[in-house]
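ZP: hey, is the pyridoxal-5'-phosphate complex queued? I don't see it on the tracker
AM: it wasn't, my bad. submitting now with these inputs:
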Amino acid sequence: MPRPICATIHLSALKHNYQIARQHAGSAKVWAVVKANAYGHGLHFALQAFDDADGLALVEVDGAIKIRQSGWNKPVLLLEGFFHADDLPLVVQHQIDVAVHCDEQIALLEQAGFAPSDVIQVHLKVNGGMNRLGFKPDAVAAAFQRLSAISAVQVVELMMHFANADDPSNANLPLAEQLRQFEQARSTVHHSGLQISLANSAANLLDTPPVNDWVRAGIMLYGGSSGKESAATFGLLPAMTLASELIAIQHIAAGESVGYGSRYVAAKAMKIGVVACGYADGYPRHAADGTPVLVNGVRTVMVGRVSMDMITVDVTDIPDARVGSVVTLWGQGLPIDDVARAADTIGYELMCAVAQRVQLVAGD
Ligand SMILES: *Cc1c(COP(=O)(O)O)cnc(C)c1O
């Protein structure tokens, strides 16, 4: 028997969340973003659940090839493009679209020596002020021209990523300023039929989302929050339930402590449950005392430091808690974002960090 910890992936929730992304996207098409093993949910499950998606987007070349080998024949997009010259034959062979965000990538395309029948669809990335990837607006026209001169290349789209879609009036870089930068870039490229892709989950969920042809939906598909509002506000459902079991019970007296560093000291007599889940499973080591957890469906709190393979929880007021009781770390009944907040992180990080030793199992 494996250790009791397991992550149930709710395929129906993934499908439901995709439909919500669709509704908010209006007439735009939807890239289901499946990078990082579908945000920890398993690429194979994402492929099953997102069969209706218009395309799949990710950053891993090997993942993109796996998607093709699974028989997916709609678009696949590498959001950071290719990394090395040897990626290019694979990208051409498997008809994988690529973002192009820098001159070095264009140089690799120019030097590639494509065959006359080779085709590679390029999504030209605009840096609208986030200053990670992309060409600044005044460099976009030159990049477009260089790309257009390469026989195999078809530039199909201009794309941009928002720094602050979860905080549109951000003082350092308002969303409207990024849109202005994008429009400036777009006005320099004279090519009819060029599509545009702007919105991540947070932008797609704005009351007035930016107008674009392709939405790139990530976190919302997995039922996580992309900003200040909870995922439930938008009717999104948790797509992963991480659950384990109590493997021991300790009765402690007032003044006794729990775990490494003896961080938690009981103020009264307590019953402590020991859960088979630790940071080596992906549970955040920085989770504070008071981080929520469900035991037999009852909400209680974690106490004491997170260890590699265990956490300890307060089950004083859960009389039926015993060895074998089910413990929900996050998911159905306990929003992942509540746990993330208590660990000073975001739901995205928790999902992506679920460790390899945790089995992913399909569930409803
Ligand atoms: C990851 C990613 C997304 C998805 O972002 P969410 O906030 O998860 O919706 C969209 N666009 C790009 C370029 C990305 O890398």
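AM: back. The mean pLDDT is 97.
ZP: great, adding it to the tracker
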